[in-house]
Amino acid sequence: MGAVHAKAPETTMESHRTQFEGPSNDTDPNFNFDIRTVPVKVDRVVIDGVGKTKNDILEKTLKPVLSATNFKEMVEKSTQAKIVLEKLELFKKVDILIDTSKGKNASTNGYEVQYHVEERKYPILNVKMELGAHSANESDVVVRMKSPNLFGRGELCTLDYSRVFKDDGGYGFQFSKPINGDPDIRIGANVYKGYAEFPWSSFKEISRGTALHLMFPTILGSHCLKWEGVWREMRALNRNTSFAVREQSGHTLKSSIQHVLMRDRRDDKILPTKGYLVKLTQEYAGLGGNVEFVKNDVELQYNLPLVFDSIIQLSLAGGILTKIDQNKDIKINDRYFLGGPLTLRGFTVNGVGPHSDGNALGADAYWLSGLHLYTPLPFRPGKGGFGEMFRSHFFVTAGNLGNVNLMETAKENFKNLTETFRLSYGLGVVLRLGGIARLEINYVIPVRSQNGDNVDRGFQYGIGISFL
Amino acid sequence: MASLVGDVMHLKIGATEKWPTDVAFFQPYQVEQVTLPDYSNCLAVRTFLSMSGLKFDLQLKTNAEEMSPSGRVPFLKMGAFLVAEFDPIVANVNMRGLSISAHLDETERSEMTAYITMVHTVLYNAELYLSWIDKDIFASTTRPRYGSVHPWPLSWILPWKRQMEVKSRLNACGWIDKTKENVLDEIKACLQALSDRLAKNTYFFGEKPTELDALVFGHLYNLITVRLPDSKLTGSIQNYRNLVDLCTRIEGKFYRDIQEN
Amino acid sequence: MTDDVLNLEVWKGNWDLPSVDNECLTVWAYCKFSGLPTKVQKSHQTNLFQSSLAKHNLPVLQHGSATESQLGNILSYLKNQGLGVDKNFSSKELADISAFTALIEEKLLPAYLHHWWVDTDTYVEITRPFYAKASPFPLNYFVPGRIQRAAKQHIYEPRRNDVISDEEVELLVYKEAKECLNHLSYRLGEKDFFFGDQPSSLDALVFGYVAPLLKAPLPNSQLANHVKLCLNLSGLCNRILNKYLPMSPEGYAFISGLVGVVIVDEGDYDGFSGVFGDDEGGGDDD
After folding, report:
1. Does residue B84 sit in the same domain as residue B128?
2. Cβ neighbours of residue A260 under 8 Å, at least 6 residues apart?
3. What percent of chain A lies above the pLDDT cut of 90?
4. Which among A143, A217, A228, B128 could bridge A211 via Cys, Cβ 3.0 to 4.6 Å?
């Protein structure tokens, strides 16, 4: 039997396909069946091209390959090890080669699994224009230096420098490291300084902070536990800033602990066709500092595929912010805002809810729901290629933003939040931008709005990384 | 000293409006937070408003400095308009036809402006120097007071940051190279000039107080009553009898108003 | 006797002015008012080099073993030595001098500095060429820029805050400067000098600012136009020029052994000053 090359499959474990190459393999239809159940013994696992990567992490990752007893198992285990190596970002490239073992110590059915790897010699440097029409951090240029596998055990280190249109820029330094060579359990730390302007509320903020986080999986989903300490300096944006916003200017120090549970079973983050998402966030601020609150957020999404590549998507999000000290108001930079071309469509960015002299003040609680029907573009131009970046959609969005009044019962508060809700519907085109953002051009008709809302009827477009 | 926000404001307001009824006066907490130079300015403006018989509602805010359109205290909120610091506030009152120095002729008004500028530059810079540059006073008084309303570590960072700003300002006007003795000499020279000008008059310009009297009171009353680590300064002020008498006179006549407000 | 001579080093003159620098003019005029024996030296190479290294600007006054630079220091030195005309004034008048000096430094100086050193037209056409020529190589490359940076800091730093733009600072400083000139004009009134018929350091100070604004060919100068409207201030300036610092070409005196142009200017020696064109002054520097 000649050498068998087992090429690494490109898909994940669930849809496992192995492709064989060799002069004799394809001729005999029974051969495939046979070879999968053929007993094997992995004599050696060889890894070639290692420089700074430490042996202990490689041994731990590759050891399971040695335990394979048949050919199928051997291929699966070596592929799984490859996936782990890739998730740990140890190497630029990983190739697998399986060969019969040779030499005098070779056992019968003995195989040798070879990994050909290439390490990164230099940090990755990239310069990009950052998109942020929806998010508050509208950076113009971001320079990022990324150095994966810094000390040989999968440590990831990144350094950012951003320059916004105005002179005040920001920087960030992140470090994270897998624990015990497990790519799903990571511990990390970062420090940053950021500058942001919030034109809908007419204030600006410089934040300087540091955070520690721990990511780990459970059967519920992936968890992220984070402590963050941040000093925020808030100032009025200009002379026309309303006094209600101006009087909140000043320095705050927030020290908070946050837990995020995410269960993402969608096939795509931007334009999913099936699956669901559950995301629960809890934040407690008040471990030192002078900001105290409890914040609970939830985000749900369900995608139902229909005929003709159409998808029904139902999304629901909500959050509630609770004071701890009743005499201390929660400041504008911790409150909720609602509205915009990618969330509650038919309203300007964060244009829903209480305002003072045209400046959005935010509120303690919100809910938002959306029902979308996504279909391919009419007549399907560019089907299977370019056209897959586009979808047309029909949507109905509804939501509300309001303050919770402690003098009233939970039932009354719930009634307030549901009675004064905002509603809009429309249709438009969605464009996937890379793997992280989307662009939408919609025609929207707001149906229900409240006094003080900034309604944006008609054509509306938006780019952003968060949407609903 | 002057702030353009105030300046832009009077163009908007015009001279026709009388004193609004909802004027609010913003300053930091007096007992535990405010620093020496800021308090002199707050006291000067409050005295000026009392002399003018204008009512206001005193609002103590820990973040008054950050709220202020010029970044300095005190500031006034008149309806939707904000005016910060002594000169723009005086100009605003004058624009409304409520000036307390309307009886002065042009020469006297020029002299008053010159003395006001001298007090601003010499006494204000000297107070900045003493409270932010002098190591003892900074460590024992200014830093704890300025930082008192913030949690650690902001209670250290923010005074340090403000100290950098003060250094940069004093550097621009050449005060940073002075020694403490130089600064005390500057104060004495300024007080000497004020004392010589006041001579035996009731107020600087006759029988009626003007904004100069309010400003001098704001600084001197504060310098006399403040407890600084060394009492050299307070002692040297006591030598200018007529200035001390002026302070007593203004305190007796207007201080109750100031406190009531 | 030589100990009593004041050695004064100043920037050289132009446009019918004995010096183009306001502080130099002030110190020079004040020395003349006081009738002190003064030896004036114009942008001397070695001294300039030293003073540049020591971060000091002209004028520099040397008297006996003492060396003082900067206007305020020189005036207080003279006062402490019991020299100068200011000692003849009453305490109230001296108080007024202090107050108006503060007014000028706070309100007029920023706009004056802006006009000469920040305003692009004036800086490129007049200020930089003049100071570059007056400074010897290689200082001519550094001196104008250094003074410009210091001027910018002086103008913008104390007025800097979140909401004010540089353009608004400019509007503000020019507005204040014009108001300051008005106050000076009101204070001077119809009198010959600020305190009657005898000049004081305040007259010297006002002269220092007003003379260059009146005499220099400044492009679009709102400040110069405003000074011209204050007739009594320009009158004061011409009175001082004619009486104390008259222009007389025969007044030059070249002293061998010194680099640069030197005028010996004894106090009791009448009509003794010089007009210096760029060529004469700059000739030795190259």
Report:
1. no
2. A223, A224, A226, A279, A280, A281
3. 32
4. A228
Does residue C194 have a pLDDT over 50? yes
Q: What is the pLDDT of residue B229?
A: 66
Across the range C251-275, mean pLDDT stands at 36
CA distance C199 to B52: 38
With CA atoms as reference, the chain C residue closest to A239 would be C163
- Domain boundary at B66, B95, B124, which? B95
Q: Does A245 touch chain C (CB under 8 A)?
A: no
CB contact under 8 A, A249 and B66: yes
pLDDT number for residue A138? 54
User: What's residue C43's pLDDT?
Assistant: 65
For the stretch A79-88, pLDDT in tens is 888 888 888 8
CA–CA min distance C171, chain B (Å): 9
Task: Sort out which chain C residues have CB atoms less than 8 A from A205's CB and list them.
Answer: none
Residues C218, C127 contacting (CB under 8 angstroms):
no
Per run of 10 residues, the mean pLDDT along chain B (length 261 residues) is: 40 61 91 90 93 91 91 89 90 88 90 94 93 91 92 93 93 88 90 92 92 94 79 81 92 73 50
Chain C hits for B199, Cβ within 8 Å: 92
Q: What is the pTM of this model?
A: 0.81
Distance from CA of A235 to the nearest CA of B (A): 7
**Does B164 reside within a domain?**
yes
Instruction: Identify all chain A residues contacting C161, using CB atoms and an 8 Å cutoff.
Output: none
Residue C64 CB neighbour total at 10 angstroms: 12
The overall average pLDDT reported for chain A is 82
3-state helix, strand, coil in chain B (%, to 5): 60, 5, 30
Chain A: nearest CA to C163, how far in angstroms?
A: 6
Yes or no, beta carbons of C171 and B113 under 8 Å apart = no
Look up the CATH number of the domain holding residue B76: 3.40.30.10
C251 compared with A290, residue with greater pLDDT: A290
Q: What ipTM was estimated for this complex? A: 0.88
Three-class SS state of C178: helix
Q: Which residue of B has its CA nearest to A291?
A: B151
The answer to whether residue B259 sits within a structural domain is: no
Q: Which residues, including other chains, have CB under 8 Å from residue C123's CB and lie 6 or more apart?
A: C116, C117, C148
Would you say the C-alpha torsion C225, C227, C230, C236 has a positive or negative sign?
A: negative
Report if residue B52 sits inside a domain. Answer: yes
- Angstroms from B217 CA to nearest CA on chain A: 29
- Tell me, yes or no, whether B235 lies in a domain: yes
B22 and B145 in a single domain? The answer is no
Chain B hits for A251, Cβ within 8 Å: 63, 66, 150, 154, 158
| Interface contact flag, A239 C162, Cβ < 8 Å | no
Beta pairing partners, A220 = none
Q: Are B70 and C163 in contact (CB < 8 Å)?
A: yes
